[in-house]
Amino acid sequence: MSNKHCFIYTRDKDEFKEIEKSDVAEQYFTYLSNEPNKLETYASQNGSDAVLLFEKSENKWTLIYAKGSGIVTQRTARRRADTASRSGMLITNGERIGVKAELSVLSSSNIGDLSKSVQNKYLQHQDLRGIE
Which helix (H) or strand (E) holds 102? Predict the structure, then answer.
């Protein structure tokens, strides 16, 4: 499992933490390769709000939101995952993995570009040049 790493996100701690149970982590990767539609349910059954998987051989991050996770949780988890895909994650042996790796989101979310900016979508556009 040294080529595959699994991190769970809990909104209470607001961080991704590496799973220490290898059987649970292995099950995530089994679902990822065989039945990706079951990942959201499996994540919620294990008490996590989101899951971030890293495959070293492909240098790729995969983010999955747990079924029923709220928009704020999804948005925050996405920002943390974006950071991991840029600067990597420090694992228990002291190695940093996933620096400048691709990030894909498997879950269907309704947050759109909220992970980057809320202004364009929800705030009215104002012309700040003054009265015309």
Answer: strand 102-105
Which residue is it, tokens 């999955």?
64
Give the strand pairing for 88-90 and 96-99. Answer: antiparallel
Domain ranges of the chain: 4-122
Q: What digits encode the pLDDT tens for the residues 70-82?
A: 889 999 999 999 9
| CATH number of the 4-122 domain | 3.40.20
The answer to whether 68 and 28 are in contact (CB under 8 A) is no
Report the distance separating Cα 98 and Cα 57, nearest Å. Answer: 10
The DSSP call for residue 67 is T
Q: Cβ of 7: how many Cβ atoms within 10 Å?
A: 24
Q: How far apart are CA 78 and CA 93, in angstroms?
A: 25
